[in-house]
Amino acid sequence: MTIRRSSNDRLALGALLVLAVGTFTVGTDGFVLNGLLPTIAADLRVSEAVAGQLTTVFAVTYAISSPLIAAFTGRLDRRWVLGAGMVLFTIGMAGQAIGESFAVVAVARVLAALGAAAFQSNAYVLAGALASDERRGRALATVSLGMSVSMVLGVPIGVLAGTWFGWRAVMWGIGAVAVVVALLVPLLPGLRVPTVSLRDRLAVVVRPPIARVLGVSVLGTAAGFAAFVYLPVLVAPVAAGAMISWLLVGFGIGQIAGNSFAGRATDSLGPARVRSLSLIGTVVTLALLDVAVLSLPGAVVLALASGVFGGMLMVPQQHRLFSLAPDAPTVALGLNGSAIYGGGALGAALGGVVLSSAGVWWVGPVAAFVALLGFALSVLSRTRVPQPA
Predict the structure, then answer these.
(1) Which of 102, 235, 295, 377 is the least buried, fewest Cβ under 10 Å from its Cβ?
(2) Locate the Major facilitator superfamily (MFS) profile domain: which residues (predicted)?
(3) How far apart are CA 63 and CA 147, in angstroms?
């Protein structure tokens, strides 16, 4: 890698903040739709299960496009890719704000997802490349913190704004923040990574240790999305409208706590232990979902616990991939981004099917089973691949 800075051992706080604001912006768009699901469904004249597939559209697009974008932009300075991604993301947000039909909004979601794929995976690559080995977990956690903060601030504020001004105003607001990030991207340190062809990227996927780690990302994310996308429906008996924002605040606080813990714990305990704790906690939390949503306090506790355990997963996953693919870390992290959003697509689609065919009370148990599969795969990965102590 070629990094245009005087020292590779000291990561500039300003660069991390720009990257974190970018992931905050992308995260807000990725999650705020869930809190506004009933309003969007009514406005676009579709069912809530169908409206939930806007999340699937975004996730599938991200998962497919992330490795393709990385392959075709390999020779470019990462700043160009980050900036172009945020511009395309902004266009997608504008399209959602003005779209009058489900089809138009879905196409705009595709554009936003393409931009998010270009920005987000490269944000982690830049942070990971500039950090020393001893501080890489904390550097990745700092950028990931933007996603967590979007749950505490961006998503609840978005839900409240959507209640007061309409969901389209929320899309315009996210787009405005994206413009600011795009203007700040040229201030980041320059970074060029080795060019890797699409064939080489696919070769990385089939490495058994990496494939297992990516599989855990898919299943862990799918479990959360299967339930979280349909949160307003799940908690409808005890929370509705602006009250949903308080549940999202609880989830976001949990995300920040889990992400912060994971950054330091991954550096000190190793990724395997942190990942196992995350997945076991997710299984238990989702298994208790149907009981928790019988009361508002229970739903708040559920949201907080879900955020803590969910927020702990991706830092050890990213750290592990850096270790498994030292020859192609940018490829591995890009593929992990695809795995995350592929899992999101799988979870959103699965949750929609369960909701429409079996009913709301089956969403939690099915999501818990998916998380259990993720834990089983993580145990298999640990027994076959040596992990740091």
Answers:
(1) 295
(2) 15-386
(3) 17
